[in-house]
Amino acid sequence: MTQVVYPETENSNEVKIFSGDEQIKVDSVDVWKMATTNFY
Predict the structure, then answer these.
(1) Exposure on the CB side of residue 38, measured as CA atoms within 13 A
(2) Which tens digits make up the pLDDT trace of 1-40?
(3) CB of 32 within 8 A of CB of 15?
(4) What is the pTM assigned to this prediction?
């Protein structure tokens, strides 16, 4: 499952993973810097 996220401030640099009340196991997470987008 994925979700597109657009950082709003320069310090928007956290990754949070949650599943409600269910337990999950995360084996790997890949992160990368996002390019600036055009505001219309």
Answers:
(1) 1
(2) 566 666 677 777 777 788 888 898 999 988 877 776 666 6
(3) no
(4) 0.38
